[in-house]
Amino acid sequence: MRFSQTFIPTLREVPADAVIPSHRLMFRAGMLRKLANGLFAYLPLGLRSFRKVEQIIREEMDAIGGLEIKPTVIVPGDLWKESGRWDAMGESLLRVKNRLDADFVVSPTAEEVFTAIVRDEVSSYRQLPLTLYQINTKYRDEIRPRYGVMRGREFVMKDAYSYHPNEASLEETYQAMGQAYRRIFKRCGLSVLPVRADSGAMGGTGSEEFMVESDIGDNTLLFCKTCEYAANVEKASCQPDFTLPSAEAKKNIEKIDTPSVKTINELCAFLKTDAKNFIKTLIYKALNVELDLSETPGGEKLEKRKPRADAPEVYPEAFFAVAIRGDLDVNEVKLAAVLKASEVALAPDAEAERLTGAPLGFAGPVGLTKIPVIADTTVTAMQDAITGGLARDVHYTHVAYGRDFTSWRTADLRIVRAGDRCPQCGGELYEKKGNELGHIFKLGYKYTQGMQVRYLDENGKSQVPTMGCYGIGIDRTLASIIEEHHDDAGIIWPSSVAPYQVLIIPVKYEGEMQAAADKLTAELEHAGIEVLLDDRPERPGVKFKDGDLIGLPYRVVVGDKNLAGNCVEIKPRNAKENRLVSLHEAPQELITLIRKDLLN
Ligand code: ATP
Ligand code: MG
Q1: Which residues contact 474 (CB under 8 A, 6 or more apart)?
Q2: Whose CA is nearest to atom 13 of ligand 1?
């Protein structure tokens, strides 16, 4: 391709809202332009790399037996009502109506559509397992799109969905996907960190996320210094840092006056003690709770309802007290999983005060009768603790779990932090920030059950298949490649995803230099190498600057001095020095280099 014939509007200026390198470089290299907040247009150079990422993903999906299909992006709202997500997705779901006033959804993901296709077309165990996928546009009405295509509103995702007659079959595909993802990211030149992820309250049984380390990442990840343990903080657990007491509590519980002392810090100062000796009590509101609460304090008055005809009964809203050691924080993802709730959040202050009968800061588990108490496992070891006294300016001291109060449930609810002990080996955990590029997930029966998928097994018995889902964001992957491969001058593309593999710069596009550059281009293109020939009548300095910015893996400079000795200069974008190579040998040399890159 000749530079003069394509459309690569490079910029010297950096767009004001571009704070991360990939965002700046995609604009400056002429790959991308902004249409509106969270909406972008890929220009020719950007689209070439985009398609390469797609193609790598496609090849690896096909290699493990995935079958590509192409549903629409606009899909019937009825499918989303059937799964319950028409309401559950909230404001991020873009709902539209057609001229007949029928509801539609602009797909943010496609469990419903794929499951509906499988429901209609699969009837026998002989058709299973089945893995279908698409590489297609998604829309999510993100509150705050940012960092260019890293978090856009419209983006492209590869999403795959697999259907299985049993757990073992699901496990096999899930493992194969995990391996395929590792190959995909390696081929894209990305160092990914696979971590254990939360698999949700709704029956998921396993989940792994593929992260890249990033200062702007919105995921906190925990890694063990000793073993291979790696987990999203949403999922991370740790070894107990407490020992269950062997003897009975010694001192009697005591009520003390704590005038105007509310926060743990104030209490620590007031009682000259450490936050570890407190039991913090937080009142939570949970939505769509699937557990049975009929035997809990206040639970007998709650009513279960079916959000839709074929869904399990849930309590639309319920309140809980969560007791946790004073130096720790509650992991709300873990709490939602324990409660089998769709959502949990701290109760509004007024609600919390009504349920505890105490002003904020004086809640405690001793004598709390209106709502169930859920204790973090740390609390079960506490035999001489301080808690709120359920009245203004009152606390209890010498509180013992089991003697002075118990809990309806105990569970691991803490947010694990750097310095905590690895749950596998006891090694020290440390933290990194990460950005999620991909996610694989054993969904189980949530959608197949909910959307009534049935097939006949070997014995002619009607069964529900189990399901997995697997996503990768193309835009975010592309931006992450640039994050990992750039310098001050521009992008440094890995050959596998570069828009072109070779940039040929004739110092002047005329005479012998033109002839040599044209010949080189033709020979390389003949061998299947993608070449960008800078035939513009620009000063060499401008061409070199643009070349570094665009960042093609290999640059060949055709200058009259070297040409006199029948040589050209070859410089890999990531090397400091260039090398003189004979004009005659240059094509083969480049072909060999690029083939070697692509084998990696
Ligand atoms: P996030 O937590 O970053 O919002 P998610 O967990 O909602 O992501 P999934 O539903 O797991 O994302 O989607 C699969 C993949 O789609 C993500 O791993 C990511 O690569 C991509 N993706 C999700 N949201 C966006 C977005 N707003 N812009 C670009 N890519 C996205
Ligand atoms: Mg995810």
Answers
A1: 50, 53, 54, 57, 135, 155, 156, 157, 158
A2: 471
| 3-class DSSP string for 476-539 | HHHHHHHHHCEECCEECCCCCCCCCCEEEEECCCCHHHHHHHHHHHHHHHHCCCCEEECCCCCC
Asked if residue 228 is part of any domain, the answer here is yes
Q: How far apart are CA 78 and CA 250, in angstroms?
A: 62
Are 151 and 260 in the same domain?
no
Tens of pLDDT, residues 417-442: 999 999 999 999 999 999 999 999 99
Q: Give the pLDDT confidence score for residue 90 in this predicted structure.
A: 87
> Residues, the chain, total?
600
Which CATH number goes with the domain that contains 164? 3.30.930.10
Q: Report yes or no on 424 lying in a domain.
A: no
In this prediction, residue 325 carries a pLDDT of: 95
Alpha helices in 160-237 (DSSP H): 167-187
Q: Which ranges of the chain have pLDDT less than 50? A: none
Per-residue pLDDT, 241: 86
Q: Is residue 165 part of a domain?
A: yes
My answer on whether 447 and 575 are in the same domain is no
- The confidence score (pLDDT) of residue 304 equals 86
Instruction: Look at residue 178 in the predicted model and tell me its pLDDT.
Output: 97
User: Which atom of ligand 1 is least distant from the CA of 108?
Assistant: 10
Dist. CA 365–CA 374, nearest whole Å: 9
* pLDDT given at position 286: 95
Question: What is the rounded distance in angstroms from the CA atom of residue 280 to the CA atom of residue 127?
Answer: 54
Domain count, the chain: 3
397/445 same-domain check: no
Is 244 contained in some domain?
Answer: no
Q: What is the 3-state secondary structure (H, E, C) of 100-169?
A: CCCEEEECCCCHHHHHHHHHHHCCEHHHCCEEEEEEEEEECCCCCCECHHHECCEEEEEEEEEEECCHHH
Q: Which residues line ligand 1 (CB under 6 A)?
A: 109, 140, 142, 151-152, 155, 157, 436-439, 471-473, 475-476
What pLDDT was estimated at residue 87?
A: 87
Residues 195 and 119 occupy one common structural domain: yes
The pLDDT value given to residue 203 = 55
Q: What is the pLDDT of residue 201?
A: 59
What pLDDT, on the 0 to 100 scale, is given for residue 82?
Answer: 92
* 271 and 391 part of one domain: yes
Distance 70 CA to ligand 2 centre (A): 22
Enclosing domain of residue 214: 17-235+431-482
Q: What is the pLDDT of residue 267?
A: 84
pLDDT value of residue 246: 63
Closest CA to 213 of 194, 192, 195: 192
d(CA 332, CA 338): 10
Out of 150, 157, 158, give the residue to mutate to test ligand 1, the one with the largest number of ligand atoms within 8 Å of its CB: 157
pLDDT score for 259: 86
> Could you tell me if 29 and 169 lie in one domain?
yes
- The enclosing domain of 556 has a CATH number of 3.40.50.800
* Ligand 1 binding pocket mutation candidate from 142, 155, 216 (most atoms within 8 A of CB): 155
Closest to 231 in 3D by CA, of 96, 420, 396, 406: 420
CA distance 450 to 432: 37
Q: What is the pLDDT of residue 309?
A: 66
Residues 469 and 504 in one domain: no
pLDDT at residue 310, as a whole number: 63
**Domain shared by 177 and 52, yes or no:** yes
